Amino acid sequence: MDAATLTYDTLRFEYEDFPDTKEPVWILGRKYSVFPEKEEILLDVTSRLWFTYRKNFPAIGGTGPTSDTGWGCMLRCGQMIFAQALVCRHLGRDWRWIKGKKQTDNYFNVLNAFIDKKDSYYSIHQIAQMGVGEGKSIGQWYGPNTVAQVLKKLATFDTWSSLAVHIAMDNTVVMEEIRRLCKSNWMCAGASAFPTLDSDLLYNGYPEEAEVTDRLWKPLVLLIPLRLGLTDINEAYIETLKHCFMMSQSLGVIGGKPNSAHYFIGYVEEELIYLDPHTTQPAVEPSDSGCIPDESFHCQHPPCRMSIAELDPSIAVGFFCNTEEDFNDWCQQIKKLSLIRGALPMFELVERQPSHFSNPDVLNLTPGVKEPLTASAKWNSSDADRLERFFDSEDEDFEILSL
User: Fold this and answer.
1) Residue 268 β-bridge partners
2) pLDDT tens digits, residue range 220-229?
3) What is the largest CA-CA distance in the chain?
4) Rg, Å, the chain Cα set
5) Do the Cβ atoms of 49 and 114 come closer than 8 Å?
């Protein structure tokens, strides 16, 4: 196997351990203490799915690039935050990956949804080509909001996960909209998600053990694109951002700093903890039996860290609410954030949609394709035009990493 290509960021932080501190370490809603729980911290980090640049995968679109080195880091970060949602959905937050330990079919189904090939739900191929329908050429930079919008559309084809994906625009989360999205047509959606008990379709399909967690609520993936300042993050948002990592519903944050994108999974003191996609690894091919060599999808060294003050102000925050009770609890926690002295709320939580507000969920932009998405699936151009105004304007604030 070819050696991975490591960038400056990866080399700088690869073996840097956690600081000796009495302050807690927060990882996606879990609180740890460095001294007695260092191994537990590292195991939790290693268990997150880690997506990096890859090379020598099938050409995107048949004739496009065979590597995403230098342009795909935000796409990989989008994969990581969405993979965490699928892990919570199918494996649970307590699930852990241990090297050499046999994993369940559900684990491999989640991983297979992101493998670099055209028929995986959330592959680099699907994300890049769905972006073409939105005016993004293959190899062009995506901002956090753009990748969130594309993943939302791809999720409509993932009937196994049967997720309700909501992207809150205008710095506003409308509770009524989310409840309507998660409760509407649930029984119909459930029927399509679990077609027959004797189905043998397991490859990107419907594992036999799949269950409906809450028949009155489709599991929610909530993504909130935000801009927390002009050129630098406003310090007044920092405490609020930290509290997002403390919530049990946290999926983390996608964003970055000049020249690169990262997937942020927690913080310690005044530093963010993140997984870095800037490592080029060879593409992985599933075996004939469908087994996937998975060690390269787990970061097995201490995670990277950076000062919160270095964070680019354009981010997207993610949350997963498996049940309506989870969502109600999340709403209560968000309301309490407004009581933190000196902290500025990052977004507004309202019961009903303000009269001046437009939400892409109510524009009925879901593609009219009933079969699984393929590379040839096309969107109606008018749909693309209507959705364009919801895509981010911050794309140009990031620069493509030069290697």
Assistant:
1) 25, 271
2) 999 999 999 9
3) 58
4) 20
5) yes
